[in-house]
């Protein structure tokens, strides 16, 4: 755990400030939940906080309180840059290095003269003036809760704050099932329910919001599922053509990789998703036990993440990417066989 200059940060936040809060590119439930949760809290403390996201996030997160105030750097560039220019400090949530916001936004942030405050649970964070980094945490949302608690402000948590934080903890823990879910996580969730988070509504809004096309695309993904013999590995592919056929929308493939991991005996799962516009194959990796997909993604697929959930990309075509992947995992047979003991 790294806690750097957070006492100074508390002092700095004793006066009203203009604040921008940023999440990573392709924001997920934890990125949107943590940035909005922190925004509601800081606004309540008398600051003026604005959330700026690099790009769009899935429909099933748009119901979150405050979502209508989020500025998108790619679409509302002027407003985003203005908010940044006006701000005294920038919070970076749920990512560990500036490149995770994408090149455009990174270039703007690098010119930025004011201070950064990082709150994040990814490995190997870059250095910023203020840092709260803890890879043992289930989610950045859990850390936002801890940040509020550090400031003795749990009393200030209202339904909006509770709803946002609950959502990110829920999505980043696979609904409280991953190993990162601790008794403290559950205690925080209990407090958030007491503060007004409506657990049934949140689960419904996030998980029972499938479009027909999304389920059809899932059907295609499951049809494409393949097992790599003797490697405890399963993977899924989705081509651009398949995505188009089922009216792919952002977020439609979220969580699909977990079906590959749910095959009995599988310790490593991957999904390869062709993105013709970006000219890449976007990859998600998941593992069970000791096999670190963070290291695997960093080493071979220009990516990173956590030990058991990471992502990366390939510039090769789908076929070559799959050949590369299956060749690689064959070199890790032993590690993959012993990664997880149920
Ligand atoms: P997902 O597979 O859900 O997109 O991402 C899983 C985890 O890996 C997330 O914590 C995400 O931040 C991280 N991740 C995904 N793609 C990349 C990438 O290209 N680079 C790095 N460094 N991390 C990634
Ligand atoms: Mn997260």
TrEMBL record:
Question: In this protein, which residues make up the domain named DHHA1?
Answer: 245-316
Which Pfam family name is an example for this entry?
Answer: DHHA1
One annotated GO molecular function is: nucleic acid binding
Protein name in UniProt? DHH family phosphoesterase
Q: Which residues form the DDH domain?
A: 18-169
Q: What is the native source organism of this protein?
A: Tenacibaculum todarodis
Q: Which InterPro entries match?
A: DDH_dom (IPR001667), DHH_sf (IPR038763), DHHA1_dom (IPR003156), Oligoribo/pAp-PDE_c-di-AMP_PDE (IPR051319)
Q: Which residues form a coiled coil?
A: none
